Amino acid sequence: MTGEVYTPIEMIRKLISFDTTSRDSNLALINFVADYLSGHGVPSTLIPDPSGKKANLYATLGPTDVPGIVLSGHTDVVPVDGQTWETDPFEMVEKRGRLYGRGTADMKSFFAIGLALVPDFMAQPLAIPIHFALSYDEEVGCLGAPLMIERMGDLAAMPQIVIVGEPTNMCVVNAHKGVYSFHTTVTGLEQHSSRIDQGVNAVQYAARIISFLADIAIEMRDERNQPDSGFTPGYTTVHVGTVQGGTAQNIVPRECTFTWEYRLLPGEDPDEIKNRYDTLIANEILPAMHKVDPDTGVETEVRAMVPGLVPENGSPAEELVLKLAQRNATEVVAYGTEAGQFQSAGVPTVICGPGDIAQAHKPDEFIEISQIESCIGFMGRLKNVCIA
């Protein structure tokens, strides 16, 4: 069966043309990839989200009964709303030795290069399979990958290595922080501001909680800093991102909402901060609120619980990818990825991909063509490993 053939840059251009902002569907891109792979004799498994409007894609090149190597990437991108772009963000533009467009760096280029090289991968029988694992909703909490990882458990042979192609400038990353994010709603009791004794001020109670989180942030910075960890900053961070509440100056506010997160150093207790937060709510905040009105309260919704990537020095993934990337040492990054989810499933995982994270999420996002060339070389060496 003969399918369409793309150069790596042509495939990047094609994938960038799909607006896969996280709030929207990614099915157009997923269906294109499935059709493209089918044209080369490669079947795909689609794993939809609960709404059916998004899907993961999992596909295998080579034998299905042998442990293989996963090339993992997320298909969604962050919004361009409010950003000033010189060009259409969903039309790749090549200039000054760079490729511009939303997703060029983060992170469509990695799996675009892999897809473009499918004919090369299939030209000789693969002894070791190569799997494509494309996920949805990584940017809003790594929501898609767990469903795909669960399905991987049904395979005849679990993968032996996962390479997550987030932008690392083709350096090999073996550790990143975990990301735990939340949305809190404080419900008080409205009242005229002259009668505050008969109201419950949601904004002020939210402020007390936020102040508590700020104190934990200072504690982590001043007492729990690990300057030798390789991370910048070298401690678990706690951050409140948005606050909304109140309707008018002379009304005791009924509701206040805020979003918050902590980014945890690998190996630290992921429940500590949330447990301390819950204790404050139960022992101090709710009793004070309920003295006035038992129907008031604090509700906290978990938005994301993404485990960190813990270093596995000397793991098969680390040893192989260091050779493929022609590097001598590993690095760490502060941002979160799906790598920790794959690792938690028992598969050795590292991060290595083209592009610079400094360009991610910005207007006029770009990737250097030299990075594309480095990744093409990486994929060629991977092919040689898999046919050996």
What does this entry look like structurally?
With 388 residues, the protein is α/β, with parallel strands linked by helices. It folds into two domains: 246 residues, Aminopeptidase (3-Layer(aba) Sandwich); 129 residues, Alpha-Beta Plaits (2-Layer Sandwich). The chain is 32% helix and 24% strand. It has ten helices and 17 strands. The strands form five sheets. The chain has a six-stranded mixed sheet with strand order 1-2-6-3-7-16. The chain has a four-stranded antiparallel sheet with strand order 11-13-9-14, covered by helices on one side. A hairpin with a 6-residue loop joins strand 1 and strand 2. The longest helix has 22 residues. The chain is elongated, with a radius of gyration of 23 Å.
